[in-house]
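Deliverable D2.4 — example input (structure tokens):
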């Protein structure tokens, strides 16, 4: 029985994709409300000078700066916003970091950006990616290298944002475990994941006021440390997986068997008033993420003496 369970988990794990679309905007609205003191703070761009224990795809990783503002100075919010997208640009691709990479569709990018729960088992390293860059950020600030302090922190934010996406924590409900043996069904699940990634981008695109409120107006929610932050973000996200997944299927089932959901599909559904449940649950997921992450950010900034 244990063996069968393991095989099922392994098959389920091969059904993954990328991330929320819109890390930059999510980070911007989060930082603006969590750390208003930083909105006028500039730091000087510095060279990358770190010996890291973590492997990267060096063909794809760029360590030079690409958001400099004036004569080598750059706004701290700009660093956080810009580089919160960086981990999706290839630095985690093409590496050999997990024995689970023998599975179809499981590559090093998936391993580093997800933490998948099947029954009561958790797989992959999304949480460790977050912890790693929090540690690197602390090291940089302790050397008074503020630019890299913020840049590593931006990467850390990327991974905690990923962990707030229900499809980065679940592939399907556990009762469907047998169905994923079917390749067509696996394509279907992958498209469900893409659709929900795109939904966040859709809400940003239409400048959805309630989404921005959920990010900006949720007050900081205390959490003891980074571990508790990850736990609170993931548990809430997992608790909303079923309703998100049911809604995505209810709205787009026919499309999802054939192709990816597009922006226009959301527009049409929205014009018919069909997105209300999906919107509501998304505000809850994002608000939970924002509240806990704001608290962490303020505490972290005080620790590294960027805030009094
Ligand atoms: Zn990601």
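Example output (designed residues):
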């Amino acid at each position: 029985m244990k063996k069968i369970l393991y095989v099922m988990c392994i098959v389920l794990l091969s059904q993954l994709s990328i991330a929320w679309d819109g890390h930059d905007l999510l980070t911007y609205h989060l930082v603006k409300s969590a750390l208003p003191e930083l909105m006028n703070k500039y730091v000087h761009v510095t060279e990358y000078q770190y010996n890291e224990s973590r492997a990267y795809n060096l063909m794809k990783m760029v360590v030079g700066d690409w958001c400099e503002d004036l004569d080598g100075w750059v706004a701290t919010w700009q660093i956080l916003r810009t580089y919160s997208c960086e981990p999706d640009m290839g630095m985690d691709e093409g590496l050999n970091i997990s024995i689970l990479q023998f599975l179809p569709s499981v590559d090093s990018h998936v391993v580093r950006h997800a933490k998948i729960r099947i029954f009561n088992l958790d797989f992959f390293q999304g949480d460790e990616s977050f912890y790693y860059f929090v540690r690197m950020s602390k090291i940089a600030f302790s050397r008074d290298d503020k630019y890299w302090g913020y840049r590593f922190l931006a990467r850390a934010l990327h991974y905690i944002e990923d962990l707030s996406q229900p499809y980065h924590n679940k592939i399907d409900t556990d009762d469907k475990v047998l169905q994923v043996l079917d390749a067509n069904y696996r394509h279907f699940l992958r498209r469900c994941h893409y659709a929900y990634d795109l939904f966040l981008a859709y809400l940003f695109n239409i400048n959805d006021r309630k989404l921005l409120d959920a990010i900006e107006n949720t007050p900081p929610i205390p959490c003891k440390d980074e571990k508790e932050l990850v736990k609170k973000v993931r548990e809430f996200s997992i608790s909303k997986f079923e309703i998100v997944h049911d809604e995505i299927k209810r709205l787009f089932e026919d499309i999802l068997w054939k192709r990816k959901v597009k922006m226009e599909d959301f527009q049409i559904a929205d014009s018919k008033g069909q997105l209300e449940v999906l919107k509501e649950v998304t505000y809850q997921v994002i608000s939970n993420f924002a509240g806990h992450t704001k608290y962490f950010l303020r505490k972290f900034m005080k620790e590294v003496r960027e805030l009094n």
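The longest strand covers residues 42-44.
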